[in-house]
Specification:
Structural class of chain A: alpha+beta
Largest interface: A-B, 72 and 78 residues
Distance between the termini of chain A: 47 Å
Distance between the termini of chain B: 61 Å
Oligomer: heterodimer
Keywords (chain B): Cell membrane, Coated pit, Endocytosis, Membrane, Protein transport, Transport
Number of strands of chain A: 7
Strand content of chain B: 5-15%
Strand order of the largest sheet of chain A: 2-1-5-4-3
Region (Disordered) (chain B): 625-646
Strand content of chain A: 15-25%
Subunit structure (chain B): Adaptor protein complex 2 (AP-2) is a heterotetramer composed of two large adaptins (alpha-type subunit AP2A1 or AP2A2 and beta-type subunit AP2B1), a medium adaptin (mu-type subunit AP2M1) and a small adaptin (sigma-type subunit AP2S1).
GO molecular function, one term (chain B): clathrin adaptor activity
Number of helices of chain B: 40
Shape of chain B: globular
Shape of chain A: globular
Largest sheet of chain B: 6 strands, antiparallel
Largest sheet of chain A: 5 strands, antiparallel
Family (chain B): Belongs to the adaptor complexes large subunit family.
Radius of gyration of chain A: 15 Å
Number of strands of chain B: 16
Helix content of chain B: 55-70%
Number of helices of chain A: 5
Chain lengths: 153, 930
């Protein structure tokens, strides 16, 4: 059994994943050290766990010693892996907040935007989440910053 | 509105991505990628210097290829070059490449750190943020060494931009987690705490994560954060839904910050200052009040954000566990959620109520929702919700509702998901025991449990019911009657046969008066199950039969007949054969008095914590069972078991409990063996040609490899054949050891001229071993210098007329002289580097011979004698150990690293010692163990 613990009491996001229904990864952001094989294994497991659930189920699912908070938008699953004692609804809405920013930034975001602009998606993530914690929650502030960066050469 | 078009800025990249997407097959994709890699390689190697734009584009393409799952082995240098560009987009791609593809190439790390250093001192907030994000994403020790001193300065400096402060706070958090020893807050503590007052809510949001983590480690130094957090929370909670503008989310003011503030407060006890406490209680009341107000929006985002705060507030209320009024209000609120149409809310309410149930103030309030919870267990569609309902029923159970809850759980078990059955079984078993007022109910419940979910009833559960029946004479008759009835079913679970065999063997006499359950009827019933059972159950039944002979002399001839049959006395299983032979002999030779003594009723088990509770705790992990519950368990359990002393260490208690039940078996045998030694029996048993011995006699054994089994343990059976069993017990201290060898004669015939010779010196052993008896030999060991070859032990004796000759390797290996050495990560790696001569290292890569179970690996490594170091290796899957081998001549420090690769089912083992022969030997020894 793989253990995902860093230190017992400092709770952080372990990873953020965006996957499509076929299991293709559109973003993988890791907040702790995994080797490549293990990352691949986690990606596959999360896909297997999340895609079998139906809309009437909760947006939370236990995963190893952790839980995945996830939400589906069209064909994309946005997943955050956190500690079992973390606040489910806060992370569920953090996902939505992130999606709204992406939507605004890419002007009606679709899966292809995330493919072609993968390097910009990382910038958006880093503005909103850093070191496994929520960094900024104001959509206005994040978008203003992204717009400013966009104007830089 | 900001909007970006597809791949703007880097056309070549967009074309490449399109090409990849258009590939019809994996082969085509690989071909296209290889073409691109060749192209990029030639550009990087070409004579023409690349401009920044091209470099950025190619590095970005490499990154894309890597993210597709291909290895990238070049381009790192170009990425590092991008870091020193003055253009944001180039720098950004450089940093991104480094963050995603970081490796520990030390040369590169130095260059990266140089670039980061420049950016941190650039006073350009965009560049500073990029550098900080890179540190936060990589978080390596080298980076901590380079920047842990600088970042707190940036964080608290008056002229630092807000966005940089946000990044600096979380960057520091990351470094603190990877290298706490390098992050010294000292002089900065107070200024960091005061970031809670910062005007910029984003700064507070980031800083509070840092403060929470730091205050968990140093609560006293950070305790001023409590009053600051309360006043910040109070300002947010009392603000109107539009006051906080940017930080209002679907009409909820600053939901994430509120949650973080409430979570920070959970690191501390309730505030001592009355005014602060009053203000906080007011906040919590306001949050509870808001939950009752009509929603300001129908959007789920609104209610989720609002409820996120509410659940966090309830967590804090439960954490304080001191405000009855708030606890009951929280409980009522959760009660409403139990019937909410949103599955998420029902789930969270069940989860949260579970902790409320353990508070004495809210326990009663929680209990009022029992019907709803039972209904949830029956009707919820999502298994994880049903699981929470089962957890809550368990938590709310007390004497008043135990019968109802246990009955509901039992009926749910019939259709429960396989994934949660074992846990449900444990819970039912615990509740039944804990709240048993009348023990017939307890016995009924456990037997029902075995009937309904026999496959999921672990040993602990059936051991426990036997312990309790043995210890309580008021329930023994009922238990005998009930198992007898349960065994009538045509298809009985094997666990039922075990319990039945044990209980009838002990207490069958209590129901023997009824002709419907006369001794012979009981025996025939048990024996009708015999042939369908596994070996351990059959062994148990044989013991029950010999007990029957004692309880009911009239069954003796029938049972002897059974024991005498070929299928028993010539059974291919040694254990069954031995029992049949010995029980048969015992029953025909022993007088009634001797039989009555040997087969006496089992004495009561010593009182201790329920083995089942220990098992549940183990299953759920530490902390899953609250302290309350444990204490309650003690109180209530004490009552149940007649208030004896209870084991504190649950793990030990559990294993003892298991052992104790096994003792039924062992007990029988031990007494049996000593009975055999009684003088009056001696001659009868020493007769050669006893009919039961038909073993083939082997003349010479040379068994050298067995010793390897003892590398990681000190006690066990060293050797066994049909004649002789050699047990071993050993203990080691420093460079000294003592080994006890036990030679057991498994036959009924004497071994004569028994001698052992060791290629080193030893005390002579008794020359004669009586049939069934055991003699002991002690060997003192001193380790003079390191060694590879173990001493050889030669054993000779006569059995019947034949000379037996046996050579064994004594299980003395160099690792027995280890003294464990605890050390911190830093020391370990320093020491590791010092042992860098090629001959000091021995490495082996080998296939796993056993399942790669972490716990088993740990146990083996501990058995090795070294200290198993936690949190040292950056990869949590790996194991590292340290120890010093004590010999008379010198001490040999050794370090070990074991890297399992679960996918390949391989291990890499590396040992470094100050002496080359030791590394080599340790590596050889260990490679055989996993």
């Amino acid at each position: 059994v793989l253990s995902l613990t860093v230190q017992p009491r400092c709770k952080i996001i372990r990873f953020i994943l965006i996957q499509n229904r076929a299991g293709k990864t559109r973003l993988a952001k890791w907040y702790m050290q995994f080797d490549d094989d293990e990352k691949q294994k986690l990606i596959e497991e999360v896909h297997a766990v999340v895609t079998v659930r139906d809309a009437k189920h909760t947006n939370f699912v236990e995963f190893r010693n952790f839980k995945i908070i996830y939400r589906r938008y069209a064909g994309l699953y946005f997943c955050i892996c956190v500690d079992v004692t973390d606040n489910n609804l806060a992370y569920l809405e953090a996902i939505h907040n992130f999606v709204e920013v992406l939507n605004e930034y890419f002007h009606n975001v679709c899966e292809l935007d995330l493919v072609f602009n993968f390097y910009k998606v990382y910038t958006v993530v880093d503005e909103m989440f850093l070191a496994g914690e929520i960094r900024e929650t104001s959509q206005t502030k994040v978008l203003k910053q992204l717009l400013m960066l966009q104007s830089l050469e | 509105m900001p909007a970006v078009s597809k791949g703007d800025g880097m056309r070549g990249l967009a074309v490449f991505i399109s090409d990849i997407r258009n590939c019809k097959s994996k082969e085509a994709e690989i071909k296209r990628i290889n073409k691109e890699l060749a192209n990029i390689r030639s550009k990087f190697k070409g004579d023409k210097a690349l401009d920044g734009y091209s470099k950025k584009k190619y590095v970005c393409k490499l990154l894309f290829i890597f993210l597709l799952g291909h290895d990238i082995d070049f381009g790192h240098m170009e990425a590092v070059n991008l870091l020193s560009s003055n253009k944001y987009t180039e720098k950004q791609i450089g940093y991104l490449f480094i963050s995603v593809l970081v490796n520990s190439n030390s040369e590169l790390i130095r260059l990266i750190n140089n670039a980061i250093k420049n950016d941190l001192s650039s006073r350009n907030p965009t560049f500073m943020c990029l550098a900080l994000h890179c540190i936060a994403n990589v978080g390596s020790r080298e980076m901590a060494e380079a920047f842990a001193g600088e970042i707190p300065r940036i964080l608290v400096a008056g002229d630092t931009m807000d966005s940089v402060k946000q990044s600096a706070a979380l960057c520091l958090l990351r470094l603190y987690k990877t290298s706490p020893d390098l992050v010294l807050m000292g002089e900065w503590t107070s200024r960091v705490v005061h970031l809670l007052n910062d005007q910029h809510m984003g700064v507070v949001t980031a800083a509070i994560s840092l403060i929470t983590c730091l205050s968990q480690k140093n609560p006293d130094e950070f305790k001023t954060c409590v009053s600051l957090a309360v006043s910040r929370l109070s300002r947010i909670v009392s603000s109107a839904s539009t006051d906080l503008q940017d930080y209002t989310y679907y009409f909820v003011p600053a939901p994430w910050l509120s949650c973080k503030l409430l979570r920070l407060l959970q690191c501390y006890p309730p505030p001592e200052d009355g005014a602060v406490k009053g203000r906080l209680v007011e906040c919590l009341e306001t949050i509870l009040n808001k939950a009752q107000e009509p929603p300001k929006s129908k959007k789920v985002q609104h209610s989720n954000a609002k409820n996120a705060i509410l659940f966090e507030a309830i967590s804090l209320i439960i954490h304080y566990d001191s405000e009855p009024n708030l606890l009951v209000r929280a409980c009522n609120q959760l009660g409403q959620f139990l019937q909410h149409r949103e599955t998420n809310l029902r789930y969270l309410a069940l989860e949260s109520m579970c902790t409320l149930a353990s508070s004495e103030f809210s326990h009663e309030a929680v209990k009022t929702h029992i019907e709803t919870v039972i209904n949830a267990l029956k009707t919820e569609r999502d298994v994880s919700v049903r699981q929470r309902a089962a957890d809550l029923l368990y938590a709310m159970c007390d004497r008043s509702n135990a019968k109802q809850i246990v009955a509901e759980m039992l009926s749910y078990l019939e259709t429960a998901d396989y994934s949660i059955r074992e846990e449900m079984v444990l819970k039912v078993a615990i509740l039944a025991e804990k709240y048993a007022v009348d023990y017939s109910w307890y016995v009924d419940t456990i037997l029902n449990l075995i009937r309904i979910a026999g496959d999921y009833v672990s040993e602990e559960v059936w051991y426990r019911v036997i312990q309790i029946v043995i210890n309580r004479d008021d329930v023994q008759g009922y238990a005998a009657k009930t198992v007898f009835e349960a065994l009538q079913a045509p298809a009985c679970h094997e666990n039922m046969v075990k319990v039945g065999g044990y209980i009838l063997g002990e207490f069958g006499n209590l129901i023997a008066g009824d002709p419907r359950s006369s001794p012979l009827v009981q025996f025939n019933l048990l024996h009708s199950k015999f042939h369908l059972c596994s070996v351990p159950t059959r062994a148990l039944l044989l013991s029950a039969y010999i007990k029957f002979i004692n309880l009911f002399p009239e069954t003796k001839s029938t049972i002897q007949e059974v024991l005498r049959s070929d299928s028993q006395i010539r059974n291919s299983d040694v254990e069954l054969q031995q029992r049949a032979v010995e029980y048969l002999k015992l029953s025909s030779i022993a007088s009634t008095d001797v039989l009555a003594t040997v087969l006496e009723e089992m004495p009561p088990f010593p009182e201790r914590e329920s083995s089942i509770l220990a098992k549940l705790k183990k299953k759920k992990g530490p902390g899953a069972v609250s302290v309350n519950e444990l204490e309650e368990g003690k109180r209530e359990g004490g009552e149940l078991n007649g208030g004896g002393e209870r084991g504190d260490n649950s793990a030990i208690a559990a294993s003892n409990a298991v052992r104790d039940t096994n003792k039924y078996e062992k007990h029988c045998f031990e007494i049996f063996i000593s009975a055999l030694q009684l003088k009056s029996w001696g001659s009868g048993f020493a007769t050669p040609g006893c009919p039961c011995m038909f073993v083939c006699l082997t003349h010479t054994h040379t068994l050298l490899s067995l010793a390897l089994r003892f590398v990681c343990k000190n006690n066990g059976v060293l050797f066994e054949n049909q004649l002789l069993q050699i047990g071993i017990k050993s203990e080691y201290r420093q460079n000294l050891g003592r080994m006890y060898l036990f030679y057991g004669n498994k036959t009924s015939v004497q071994f004569i001229t028994f001698t052992t010779t060791l290629n080193v010196q030893s005390k002579p052993v008794e020359p004669l071993i009586e049939g069934g008896a055991q003699v002991q030999q002690v060997i003192n060991i001193e380790c003079l210098t390191d060694f590879s070859d173990a001493p050889l032990l030669n054993i000779k004796f006569r059995y019947g007329g034949a000379l037996q000759n046996l050579t064994l390797k004594l299980p003395v290996t160099i690792n027995k002289f280890f003294q464990p050495t605890e050390m911190a990560s830093h020391d370990f790696f320093q020491r590791w580097k010092q042992l860098s001569l090629p001959q000091q290292e021995a490495q082996k890569i080998f296939k796993a011979n056993h399942a790669m179970d972490t716990e088993v690996l740990k146990a083996k490594l501990l058995g090795l004698g070294m200290a198993l170091l936690e949190n040292v290796d950056p990869n949590p899957e790996n194991f590292v150990c340290a120890g010093v081998i004590q010999t008379k001549a010198q001490q040999v420090g050794s370090l070990l690293r074991l890297e399992p690769n679960a996918q390949a089912q391989m291990y890499r083992l590396t040992v470094r010692s100050s002496k080359d022969t030791v590394s080599k030997r340790l590596c050889e020894l260990l490679a055989e163990q996993f």
